[in-house]
């Protein structure tokens, strides 16, 4: 559980809580969609193949300044 929560935090995620569901623990979190592209691989590695996750679109939020600057620089480099 600690590894999964720590990984969510490194992906700019916010852990909203944990709930028991039968013999499992469910972690509820909000994580930017761009950070979830490889999450299946990461989660399977952390949980010895036992972890699963589901996603649901919640809404939009402003991109942090440092990431925005990086994206703008990449776009400018691609354009010329």
Would you kindly provide a written description of the structure presented here, covering whatever features stand out?
With 80 residues, the chain is of the alpha+beta class. It has one domain (2-79): Alpha-Beta Plaits, CATH 3.30.70.240. It is built from three helices and two strands; from the N terminus they run H-E-E-H-H. It has helices at 2-10, 39-46, 65-79; strands spanning 14-21, 24-30. The protein has a two-stranded antiparallel ribbon. The protein is elongated, with a radius of gyration of 16 Å. The termini are far apart. The mean pLDDT is 93.
Offer a quick outline of the entry:
The protein is an alpha+beta fold and 80 residues long. Helices cover 40% and strands 19% of the residues. Strand 1 and strand 2 form a beta hairpin.
What is the element layout, followed by pairings?
Blueprint: H1 2-10, E1 14-21, E2 24-30, H2 39-46, H3 65-79
Antiparallel strand pairs: 1-2
Which terms summarize this structure?
Alpha-Beta Plaits, alpha+beta, 40% helix, two-stranded antiparallel sheet, 80 residues
Structural class: alpha+beta
- Strand composition percent: 15-25%
- Find the count of extended strands (DSSP E, 2+ residues): 2
Overall pLDDT score: 93
The end-to-end span amounts to 45 Å
């Amino acid at each position: 559980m600690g590894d999964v929560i720590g990984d969510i935090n490194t992906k700019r995620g916010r852990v909203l809580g944990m709930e028991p569901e039968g013999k499992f623990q469910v972690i509820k979190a909000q994580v930017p969609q761009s950070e979830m592209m490889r999450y299946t691989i990461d989660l399977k590695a952390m949980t010895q193949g036992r972890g699963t996750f589901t996603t649901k679109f919640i809404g939009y939020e402003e991109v942090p300044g440092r990431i925005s600057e990086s994206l703008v620089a990449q776009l400018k480099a691609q354009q010329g």
